[in-house]
Write a structure and sequence with these properties.
By secondary structure, the chain is an alpha/beta fold. The protein contains 25 helices and 17 strands. A 7-stranded parallel beta sheet has the order 11-12-13-14-15-16-17. A 5-stranded mixed beta sheet has the order 2-4-7-6-5, with helices on both faces. It starts with a helix and ends with a helix. The model has no long low-confidence stretch (mean pLDDT 92). The protein binds one DNA strand through helix 2, helix 4, helix 7, helix 9 and helix 14.
Amino acid sequence: MDNSEIAQVFEELAILSEMKGDVVFKVRAYQRAARTIEQLSLSLEKAVSDEVDLKTIPGVGSAISSKIKELVTTGKMETYEKLASELPPGVLTLMNVPGIGPKTAMLVATELGASTVEEMESAILAGRLSALPRMGEKTAENILRHIRSLRSKDGRTPIGQALPIAESIIASLREACPDVREMEYAGSLRRWQETIGDIDIMGTAHDAQPIIDALASLPSVQQVLVKGPKKTSVVVHPGIQVDLRIVDDDSYGALIQYFTGSQQHNVRLREYAVQRGLSLNEYGITVLETGTLEKFADETSFYGRLDLPLIPPEVREGMWELDIASRGDMPYLLELSDIRGDLHVHSNWSDGRDSIEDMVGTLAAKGYQYMALTDHSAGLGVANGLSIERLRQQRTVLDTVQQGCPMKLFHGSEVDIRADGSLDYPDDMLAELDVVIASVHSGLGQSSEKMTARIINAMHNPHVTAIGHPTGRLLGTRDAVEADMEALLQAAADTGTAMEVNASPWRLDLKDTHITRARELGVPLIINTDSHATEEPEAMRFGVAIARRGWCEPHHVLNTMPLERFQAFLSTPKPQRLRVFAGLG
DNA sequence: GCCGTTTTCGGCCCGACTGTTTTCAGTCG
């Protein structure tokens, strides 16, 4: 049972507990635990078997700690089972509909006998819902609308799709309204979560009305939901909600802080503020004793008023960031400008769109010191993988391109890890390459045991520099392979194999919690774009952001090394090269 | 159910919006 499954049980336990009528604080405790568990880098299953004290996890005390242990060891939780059996079947399902909370779900299940969304729908159509206490025609209509919108779209949007939309809306609004001063996206987008619920745009201007009008009249807008003086909401193609808020300059700091969240971070920040006699809201900070509202033009001064440094949006998840920041221990997190090379790049020699020369030119223009050309190996026929002969030819071509190129060009390959764990080129061929990225592309349905052993086997090869896109997931399209991530990361640390953070916004693989764990175990990380065309090296910013969510500093990431040190790393045999990575070699 | 430079007991974040109501419950972020 993995962490997200455990988190799911606590999320549902919170709902059941609320329906039963438990005090809200108990409900919130379950909720908070669920959200913390979801973010945890360490597998709880492993923590329990290692007898780690779970009470060190924020929001986990003795009761929740023993519930986790029960769940991990028996696969069940008595409290949950008992509550679920006492309540009408299907109540949890009903809550998937927006606008339906625990109270309404209970009412619908008990009074109307509905246990599925379909049964609820027909009860509403028969007019039975609006007859209930505190329910009316409007409520019934709204629920029906939500049921229908639930069917028409599938939840959250991958960040790679949402971010360009947000950026283009901001550009359009700035162009249409020169009066706009500050303007940026907030919410989960600004925290670089891998998927986005809706797009929040915040800004300042002398007059909000022209901006609101400009948004409502953008060609991509499908529907205007709310058009008020303070808040405007529209739906843009392809069905993403965009909220816009415009305030005066002097309130912008509190506004952007509030709407960046996360909710959990804001809850903790407000608790922290209350202890200091201050109350926070989206307008500013109120001194409780005097009732005066202080305003802040930017986030730095907002956090500063709480004696805190600016906490980077990527780590505002309500975990330990507040403790770390208040101790003065907030590290310098990796920036895009720290990246000195890209080590996973394809050309039209395999399945890339553009020539070696064009790819090299694009990367050199970014000011990188080095790159690795890593076309696919022969086994990947669908990707026009390179035979040994073509691979050697490519080397001579690359040597020619290197002439007069200011950037060091490494010759590499993205070598397929076959189903049995062997690699697609013989060792003597691999030894000729500067950089070897070993990746799984087929046999993705293997059992966890097989897949784990398969990847670890590749790590034991002395020529394998890194494992590429380790879980193989495609956001919203393909699930991660079954594998024991803890075992993989441990093996990476033991063998001196780097793990890739694939920056493609459709992959983001490793993901944030894996990155945190890798960092804790001393595994070298490499952030690569896996580019197949000249516009794709831009994706490096996604990789850097996801690494920041994993609290990466430059020294956790291999391709922040200056060229000379990176060459020293490559030329030192595994696993001794870890000493070079750690700055000891 | 959690937690402690106020506390081992008594607190526990803040506000907007909606729809149903005559003062507020439910939901959301």
